[in-house]
Amino acid sequence: MPKIAMLSTGEEVLYGDIVDTNAAWLSRVFYEHGFSMYKRSTVGDQRASLLQELVMLSLNLDVVIVNGGLGPTSDDLSAEIAAEAADVPLVLNQGWLDTLKSFYAKRGKVMPESNIKQAMLPQGASVVDNPIGTACGFKMMINDCLFYFTPGVPSEFKKMATEQILPDLANHFQTTQGRVCRRIYTFGLSESGIADTLKHLSLPADYELGYRSYLPFIEVKLFGPADDLDTGTRVLAMIEKLLHSNVVSVDEPMLDRLGHLVELNNRTIAISEHATKGYLASWLQDNEKLAQYCGATWILGAKTASPLDRDSEQLGATLALAGATKGNCNADIAISTGKLENDQFSLAISTPKGEWGQTLKLQRTYSNQNVKTVISTVAADMLRRYLENKPMFPDYGFLTRTQDVFLPLDQITT
Amino acid sequence: MPKIAMLSTGEEVLYGDIVDTNAAWLSRVFYEHGFSMYKRSTVGDQRASLLQELVMLSLNLDVVIVNGGLGPTSDDLSAEIAAEAADVPLVLNQGWLDTLKSFYAKRGKVMPESNIKQAMLPQGASVVDNPIGTACGFKMMINDCLFYFTPGVPSEFKKMATEQILPDLANHFQTTQGRVCRRIYTFGLSESGIADTLKHLSLPADYELGYRSYLPFIEVKLFGPADDLDTGTRVLAMIEKLLHSNVVSVDEPMLDRLGHLVELNNRTIAISEHATKGYLASWLQDNEKLAQYCGATWILGAKTASPLDRDSEQLGATLALAGATKGNCNADIAISTGKLENDQFSLAISTPKGEWGQTLKLQRTYSNQNVKTVISTVAADMLRRYLENKPMFPDYGFLTRTQDVFLPLDQITT
């Protein structure tokens, strides 16, 4: 197995102004393909530190993926310093210069002079194509270590890594058995709670569990050999059973699962939002399928009169809002988020089978953005549970339920 | 100036399962105190990689802050490997053991056996106190490099860094003058475009420019000495003048600027969205001030009948929608985003002074999320320009304007 490192460059990464999502992504994807990462490092835009790091890595690693520093500006130094580290000159790559010129020509523009820099590569380096940007990648040897230089723009970097670097590495090196990672998405549990629940599970040899925790979901990851999917599926089913009522989807994010369900049930959806301020509609419609079934959304701002103002009993008001939204928008299903007051909020769903409503209390203090995320996820979970015929009111670890109600069709007064 | 590095340890950081906020935080705080970070690196929990990295850093840096690996479990290896790197044994630190015992005693508990490990330090190391946790920090020399070992828990780490490590470093090393970073937020320019515009600017000694590019904004960062704010302000004004029509705010994000403007003008705002799907309302309301002035938002989904369907001429339809939204919601100002079709979209703003509308075309392919971000930013920029009495139709580098219109009050037919 080759010793692989990633080197991220740029002051904005070194100083944490942007989170280095490329590095985290690459570690995961490489791992899934049987290449594990030995170390990561980050340097700024200073010549001396970049040069020293390239040399140090070249002497201690087999493969290094360098990310960033391929732009047209004067603080983009990767190609120049790579040439210095390998003791070769920079030379013009006519092929890439032509690509750049046609890139601009297609957009009806002339290439700025400063972009010529992006076609200057260390002598002996070969181009790694970037079909969607102006910074070409390149690969070269420095002191017997194989370097891939890649652009910082995430979409360009990811395309290059999956379509070109990974296949190239697989040609250079014998990989270990490919590994796959399968995922169970949970909502409403803590990581230590999940770990406690799963600690007596005896996994087959060669299987490992991992967790990835990001609001609002915790992913349980099952790593195992790529050539034995049956065993993996069996273990996955066991885990799902143990975490049952908090599992929102398996091997696909919750939103994709909801998209399938809505399409399958062929139901149009209308939304009215107060606490979530438009985030719920915006998030759901990130899924193409859900977008096709979404009718109107009504967002009640601070200056909007609504049933939520008229009634101090928020659960009832939120149910009334859902019912009215379903009727006014002529939708099959309506979801409503009520006001957030004293960390407490009500949610309601109005459906052809009746209406469900609940009031929940946040147990922690969240940022504005995270409040919207948590409440929107509970709302989406109500939709999922309705469409899957699941119980509507599960325990959510970080929310306290203070009220819940179900009104069958014949009890709804309009 | 000492060459300073930070080494983060742990599989969960290496694989990006948790974001290394400690590293970003430390870089910023050190910088503000006149110590700049030379590099950062990350290794997992393997003995070999940790040892190799400690040795490599000790030979090339003056100061290294190691973070993580001080816990009581078997995969916490920092103290043990530090001893190995310095070729000294681990010895019991009786002082810290007493601290640990009383830490547990105060909580009415007996210290678990496994915690003894946390009082075993490399011979010659001195304790760096941790008043709020069980993992003590320690400092020691390895190959003439000064190492500080710190716990991974962010609150403990930050307390230790500010209260002990920074003052200690200031004793060891002459610091340079503290530095500040000021920011100009631009929208609609490319990084190379900005660099071309600013390349003839001659900066005073000790000032540096940096860029931070993240959709949809590019921040121009001006780094300079903390004790000469006048010069900084003068340079900032020069840069702002050069980038004039694309500067959306200075020293505060655009959303904060908009919040101030809306409050100052005391205007209520209603929104209707198609292309942006709720993202515009959700984003604007992340700002507390804007949230107070937002009236209702109407989101037109795939299944909603609206003026946008009835009229194939989208600019006119979007203007009509803005006018209707303003009237129906009884707001001072209404903003509308029209349909996105063939990468083209219309936007309109209806105000007490008249209505403005424009149609723009995306020049690149974006993800669903990024499309919403870009269009919402243009919409917010129209609001800003209206409130600041600025020209409404500037050049946006990555958008092509195909139509624009202004209807003064007396030309609006309702």
TrEMBL record, chains A, B:
Residues 5-172 form the MoaB/Mog domain. Pfam families: MoCF_biosynth. SUPFAM superfamilies: Molybdenum cofactor biosynthesis proteins. Coiled coil: none annotated. NCBIfam families: cinA_nterm. Belongs to the CinA family. This is CinA-like protein. It comes from Vibrio maritimus.
